[in-house]
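Notes, Module 5: Reading structure tokens.

Key idea: the token line is not a picture. It is a compressed description, and you learn to read it the same way you learned to read a sequence, by spotting repeated patterns. We will look at two proteins. The first is printed below with its tokens.
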Amino acid sequence: MSAADAIRAFLSATERFSMSLIAFFGGIETGLIYALVALGVLISFRILDFPDLTADGSFPLGAVVFAVCVMAGVNPWLACVFAALAGALAGMVTAWLHVSFKILPLLASILVMVALYSVNLRITGGTPNLPLIGAPSVFSPFVAPDFSNQFWIQPLIIAGFVVLAKVLLDWFFNTKTGLAMRATGVNARMAKAQGVATSKMILLGMAISNALIALGGALFAQTTGSADLASGIGTIVIGLAAVIIGENLLGSKRILWITLSAILGALVYRLLIAFALGNDFLQGVGVRPTDLNLITGVLVVIALRLPAIKRSLKRKQSS
């Protein structure tokens, strides 16, 4: 091989590595966004034992509220706060329907999820997609003019949101109110008998849960450059997948490790998705980006089966 051919081969390999590195950071970026979703789902499904499908509506709610606020000249950081507050309100409505009208949690969340589609359309003025290209974001002050550092600076900033959320949740769930909320999820009747205002705990927990999910939606809109109502489809499945994968990776009863497992699960989930969609062999057998929901379903099934597989292996080793 000539020197020119060797140089071309080296440049080609370098380019492929660069692209794979960018794809890796892209997976980390999306994984960190869904880590906020996973923390929200963790609160509703695991802490409160409240099956909540509001996430599919509160995720795009956060995106459209952020978009409308930024277009109106609101500071992007403040717009993220408004997005989180909108999500908190959606979660409280779901909890209120259950607490006040005794509607089953799953049905109450479905009602709010369906209603939020119309609410989101109202907020956007009837359009299902609001472009944010050129609009200010929380990343704008830190991204270079030529966008050369965008692939790593955005995941770093999102990681700051995730770390802050985790630290605050770890602190909160070790306070008196947080312990009361955890007791409500474990046994609501017993908690109520001990003087815990279980209805208020459910309202507060659902508000925090959907605030985190809506914040994730706001950050997702900023990374994709648009607030799309379709972005919420499958949000709850992704959140559950992250929580289940995380629990299998870091099984623990301590809240410090429980929240960490949700974050880790979201990162592993997105990296597995990125690998499945970018793997040459899988592409060769017909795997396409349109198969994302199918891949998600397969990963969730595998994650759900892991505990049984582990127990079976332990029994075989002990025998």
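Here is the second protein, with the sequence above and the tokens below, as before.
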Amino acid sequence: MKPLLLFCLLLGACKSQEVLPENCYKGRLSLRGICNNYVIELVGGTIDTARIEAQWKNPDTGKFYKNAFALSNPCALPVSLKEGDEFYFKLDSTQLTETCITCKAYSPTPRKALPIAICP
């Protein structure tokens, strides 16, 4: 019985590292503010720290977010994504030309913003 228990413990200790789709990052939609003011946290992959907020505090709630950025092209985010959902994306400035209806109401977001495209 002990060898089986030891095997199970060792198997649980070995975690496979997630493989990201090519040229993609893993993000979490952490805050879906009004008028398409979205906050995304980077949870997989590495983006230059000068382009994202290592730690951002929402002034309305006091909640902290790690490796966060605002979405500069809100039309690129599928409406089916909910707060807390994780997804794969790539940086894509060509998405900035896409237009959709947005309003001018304010919802706090990090100062740093990135354009993205959803990875297949």
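Summary for the second protein:
- The helical segments are 2-13.
- Confidence is low (pLDDT under 50) at residues 3-15.
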